[in-house]
Amino acid sequence: MDEKAIYPYSLEYAKQSSPQDVEQYKLSHKQNIACKNAIEQAIRESFDGLRLGKNSGEQVIADFGYDRVNLVLANTVHRKDYDGRFSHDNKAWAKTFPISEDMVFDRDRRNDFVVDSHPAVLDGFINQTRRAFAQLKPSVQKQLEAVPKDSKTIKDPIKDKGAR
Asked: 3-state DSSP call for residue 71?
């Protein structure tokens, strides 16, 4: 199983799907919690009481990838949407991430990976992470532009899937 893969559905869905989905769910949930802990540690180590150090999330992003870091941060803002210390921009950004409801015995498992750092400092961390991702985009665009436009070299995954 891919340790970096994010399982986007609830435990209930995984149970109804397959034993492999349950295992992928468990692994993904465990990684979400580890990412949450790594974010809290990065903030503790880089916040001097007044300022958050530049690039404080680099190692977390290197370890867990942008997708999981963004998921954990967006989940945190979703769960703490009432808190006015998160900027309107970050609240709007978080709403772009669909996060499946995940209730087990009246307990919301999404709460397991809510970052518990001070919201104002966490808001700064989210800003840094979003800027780092935005800086990544131009290089990805350059890579895509370098791919030949010849339809024989680019496979359409939807068409290929139907051909099986």
From this structure: helix
Q: Quick one: 6 exposed, middle or buried, by C-beta within 10 A (0-12, 13-18, 19+)?
A: middle
- By CB atoms closer than 10 A (0-12, 13-18, 19+), residue 45 is exposed
Strand segments (E) across the chain: 103-104, 107-108
3-state secondary structure 60-90: HHHHHHHHHHHHHHHHHHHHCCCCCCCCHHH
State the pLDDT at residue 128: 96
Evaluate whether 56 touches 42 at the Cβ level (below 8 Å): yes
- Token pair, residue 146, equals 């370098």
Reply yes or no on whether the pLDDT at 3 is more than 80.
Answer: no
Rounded CA separation 97/109 (Å): 17
CA distance 135 to 139: 8
Residues 80, 86 contacting (CB under 8 angstroms): yes
As given in the structure block, the two tokens for residue 126 are 């989210």
pLDDT confidence bin for 138, thresholds 50/70/90: low
Report d(CA 89, CA 95) in Å as an integer: 10
Determine the angle formed by the axes of helices 19-46 and 119-146, rounding to 10 degrees. Answer: 120
